[in-house]
């Protein structure tokens, strides 16, 4: 089966970059990315490619090359569905905020809406690909809706979870460790659909890196991968607290441990805690699934990863208060970095949000600088917590355009995102312009602590 026309529903952090790379690598396939968010689509179509809504190194160049050649962004969802042979569903699957499973289960309402729309609109056979991260056995529900409400056309459902990491999305998509495709491999039609998607990726991914499995293994593998990654962060963060009490240094421990080839060196960087839209939501979803099968010990085991992560954020903020003579009331605290990691403008679940919320509860005056995050996003993130009024958030938090302004006359500076540029600032100027003692809290272990102490800073890093 040859694929000529792809539609992707959802022009977000996954749909946008993934489809841009498919379009670049498969110039004979027409790729249309659709979204109900008109502003987002208008931004993807902005004449100046630097204004596309998602910042990822290398992405704007790819969009410049493929856009209006075989890559299109549109709000006409119906038309794109109808014309497509293959439809990727790449919509958001946040944690439920209501009803059964509130605070744990994935909210699948956006997925179901997509399925119903596909069923309503389609007049020819389709391969529907789950790109969103979904609970195991969601494909069954999708198939049920499509088969029972559709126009009598045939559907094949594939699971093709995305393993890209924000900040390195383009490199990850160009050179994936593996591509995973789950399908109904017991049947000829299922195998044919799997092969059609394999052929798309085979334009640039070596065949031995394209794994095919049954749908359920594929769905569960994505949750498992995120759970394992997050678990490593919580494991090293648990050790960071012990290091602080014992005089060990968490970087030295991580290096010694990571050189064991059975353990490996990646993802052992201690920090103020992981953020991002995925780790927490996917682990909570895993916990919910385990609980719904009565697997209490499995659920408790994974939940501990989240408990540790929340603890790390809280204890970082609490340490700032304690170190500043047990009060930050009325004190100016400069925050460097709001994105959940470097090289992205995504702030979802960023540790910065929670650290600042804690400091505001302690009546600090907060000033924020981030190279890529816009002020309205920072305020929206704080408003979303509902801890205080929108007016109060705006009165007590100032967002500035330069780091030097942000740190001027500050009692303390806290580094919360590992942006490379932070390392190269003129730190002696920052020191001179701060109130003394000049406290510097490094939540990413990004800076050279020894040099900062020599400059006169009271320097504190997680894990030493
Ligand atoms: N962000 C990541 O790094 C990452 C990595 C791997 C997997 N995932 C998974 O991919 C999925 C998407 O994540 P994201 O970060 O791209 O989310 P996102 O919020 O950035 O994008 C989702 C988009 O879908 C659109 N949408 C929702 N319902 C729609 C509908 N009915 N019709 C058309 N558009 C609709 C929204 O307007 C939004 O623009 C999630 O399931 C996530 O868990 C994310």
Automatic annotation (TrEMBL):
Q: Which Pfam families match?
A: UDPG_MGDP_dh, UDPG_MGDP_dh_C, UDPG_MGDP_dh_N
Residue ranges of the TM segments: none
Q: Domain of life here?
A: Bacteria
UniProt keyword annotations, A-Z: NAD, Oxidoreductase
What EC class is this? oxidoreductase
Q: What reaction is this protein's catalytic activity?
A: UDP-alpha-D-glucose + 2 NAD(+) + H2O = UDP-alpha-D-glucuronate + 2 NADH + 3 H(+)
- SUPFAM superfamilies given in the database record: 6-phosphogluconate dehydrogenase C-terminal domain-like (SSF48179), NAD(P)-binding Rossmann-fold domains (SSF51735), UDP-glucose/GDP-mannose dehydrogenase C-terminal domain (SSF52413)
The text of the family note is: Belongs to the UDP-glucose/GDP-mannose dehydrogenase family.
User: NCBIfam families, per this entry?
Assistant: NDP-sugDHase (TIGR03026)
- The protein's name in its UniProt record: UDP-glucose 6-dehydrogenase
**What species does this protein belong to?**
Christiangramia sediminicola
């Amino acid at each position: 089966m040859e694929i000529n026309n792809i539609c992707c529903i959802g022009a977000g952090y996954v749909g946008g970059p993934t489809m841009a790379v498919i379009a670049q690598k498969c110039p004979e396939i027409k790729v249309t990315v659709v979204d109900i968010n008109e502003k987002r689509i208008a931004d993807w179509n902005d004449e100046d490619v630097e204004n596309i809504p998602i910042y990822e190194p290398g992405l704007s160049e790819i969009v410049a090359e493929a856009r209006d050649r075989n890559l299109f962004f549109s709000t006409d969802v119906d038309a794109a569905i109808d014309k497509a042979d293959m439809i990727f569903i790449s919509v958001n699957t946040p944690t439920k905020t209501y009803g059964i499973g509130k605070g744990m289960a994935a909210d699948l309402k956006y997925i179901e809406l997509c399925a119903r729309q596909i069923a309503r609109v389609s007049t020819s056979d389709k391969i529907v690909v789950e790109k969103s991260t979904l609970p195991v056995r969601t494909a069954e529900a999708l198939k049920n809706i499509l088969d029972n409400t559709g126009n009598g056309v045939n559907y094949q459902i594939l699971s093709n979870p995305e393993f890209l990491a924000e900040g390195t999305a383009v490199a990850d998509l160009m050179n994936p460790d593996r591509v995973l495709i789950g399908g109904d491999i017991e049947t000829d039609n299922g195998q044919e659909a799997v092969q059609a998607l394999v052929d798309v990726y085979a334009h640039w991914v070596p065949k031995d890196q394209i794994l095919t499995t049954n749908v359920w293994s594929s769905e569960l593998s994505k949750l498992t991968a995120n759970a394992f990654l997050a678990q490593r962060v919580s494991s090293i963060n648990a050790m960071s607290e012990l290091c602080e009490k014992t005089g060990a240094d968490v970087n030295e421990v991580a290096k010694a441990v990571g050189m064991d080839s059975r353990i490996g060196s990646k993802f052992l960087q201690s920090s103020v805690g992981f953020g991002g839209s995925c780790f927490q939501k996917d682990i909570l979803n895993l916990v919910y699934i385990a609980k719904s099968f009565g697997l209490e010990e499995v659920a408790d085991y994974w939940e501990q990863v989240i408990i540790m992560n929340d603890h790390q954020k809280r204890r970082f903020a609490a340490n700032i208060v304690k170190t500043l003579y047990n009060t930050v009331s009325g004190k100016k605290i400069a925050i460097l970095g709001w994105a959940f990691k470097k090289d992205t403008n995504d702030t979802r679940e960023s540790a910065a949000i929670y650290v600042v919320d804690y400091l505001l509860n302690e009546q600090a005056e907060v000033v924020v600088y981030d190279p890529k995050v816009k002020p309205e996003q920072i305020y929206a993130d704080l408003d979303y917590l509902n801890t205080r009024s929108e007016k109060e958030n705006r009165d007590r938090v100032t967002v500035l355009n330069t780091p030097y302004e942000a740190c001027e006359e500050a009692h303390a500076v806290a580094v919360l995102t590992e942006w490379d540029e932070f390392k190269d600032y003129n730190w002696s100027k920052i020191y001179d312009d701060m109130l003394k003692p000049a406290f510097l809290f490094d939540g990413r272990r990004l800076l050279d602590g020894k040099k900062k102490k020599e400059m006169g800073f009271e320097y504190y890093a997680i894990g030493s």
